[in-house]
What does this fold into?
Amino acid sequence: MTEMLFQTDSYCKEFEAGVTAVDVENRAVMLDRTAFYPGGGGQPPDSGILSAEGLRWRVLRARKAPEGIWHLLDGQDELPRVGAALRGQID
It folds into this structure.
């Protein structure tokens, strides 16, 4: 389950997290914690950047699922692996 940082700190714009799952087909990753709001109630989802060791992935949007929050990524680069440590930045 993803720890939802936006629920306790709506001003959080940067955070550290670990990848807990990867969905190659949908180009999405699930993190153990996130500040990316998945949208709802008329509020749009957050977008931004995930980065690790010089690599960057644009987060197009976050999407809530029963098991946590998926982060849908742009591009064609290889996705981060399960267990990778990432830094998140909200636009």
Observations:
- The chain has no helices and eight strands.
- Strands lie at 3-4, 14-23, 28-31, 33-34, 48-52, 55-65, 68-73, 85-90.
